[in-house]
Specification:
Distance between the termini: 17 Å
CATH topology of the largest domain: Rossmann fold
CATH class of the largest domain: Alpha Beta
Number of strands: 8
Strand order of the largest sheet: 5-4-1-6-7-8
Strand content: 5-15%
Helix content: 40-55%
Number of helices: 10
CATH superfamily of the largest domain: HAD superfamily/HAD-like
Length: 239
């Protein structure tokens, strides 16, 4: 008889939580982050750099990473933007400050996050978070869901030095929860990096793709991967 699932992990950004600032344009968000990192460029300056970035991509001068996950991939974007801005210091310490500054954007839980997590905790599941994020995000996550997710079960890529979809981060998370990988499930908004990788790389029993924008075109799904459009569906599916 199959062992029961014991542990449910969630991705953070765009799964449990989202960031929002003013009009929420890329220029506004980056201006906030750059300022927090000690690079006080205006929103207009940054939007000009973003336009130049887009033009260079269109001209084939470089091929950007479509959905950067690793710290180095994200840093490469920042370095290009700073180059357009004429910034002389694009050293790694500056990139680390910028990488960490994302966590200081105003962050909110989705309306369905806490109710679903509370229901799942109340029926006996251990809950955790696995996120490709900076160590500075820990304080935010603990503030918003620390009563539901103990600190050891908040697993951040910068703290471990490994990112999803590498299997190590999934295995480390399971070990911290005192669970076998096959007793775990991961819910995330990225089909490949979260749901599929948790199964294929981490050996998790199941991956759940949280498809909030309803991308029907992404079907059919890989084996042992489910799709939901709201976290409110998760307790019923597991029941």
């Amino acid at each position: 008889m199959k062992r029961p699932l014991t542990t449910l992990f969630f991705d953070w950004d765009l799964t449990l939580a989202y960031t929002e600032i003013d009009g929420n344009s890329m220029g506004e968000r980056l201006a906030f982050m750059f300022g927090h990192a000690g690079l006080p460029y205006s929103q207009d300056d940054i939007e000009g750099a973003l336009r130049q970035y887009g033009e260079d991509v269109a001209l084939g001068k470089f091929v950007p990473v479509a959905k950067p996950q690793k710290r180095r991939e994200i840093a490469q974007l920042y370095q290009r933007l700073l180059g357009y801005l004429g910034e002389e210091d694009t050293s790694w310490p500056v990139m680390e400050r910028l990488y960490g500054s994302y966590a200081y954007l105003p962050t909110y839980l989705y309306d369905d996050s806490r109710p679903a997590m509370e229901r799942l905790r109340d029926v006996g599941y251990d809950l955790g978070v696995i996120s490709n994020h900076s160590r500075s995000a820990r304080a935010v996550i603990e503030r918003l869901v620390g009563d539901l997710v103990p600190s050891p079960r908040i697993v951040l890529s910068e703290e471990l030095g490994v990112h999803k979809p590498a299997k190590t981060i999934f295995l480390r998370a399971a070990a911290r929860a005192g669970a076998r990988p096959d007793d775990c499930l991961l819910v995330g908004d990225n089909l490949q990096v979260d749901a599929r990788a948790a199964v294929a790389q981490g050996g998790y029993r199941c991956g759940v793709w949280l498809d909030r924008v309803d991308r029907e075109a992404e079907r059919p799904l890989p084996p042992r991967v489910m799709r939901i459009t709201s976290l409110a569906e998760l307790p019923e599916i597991l029941a």
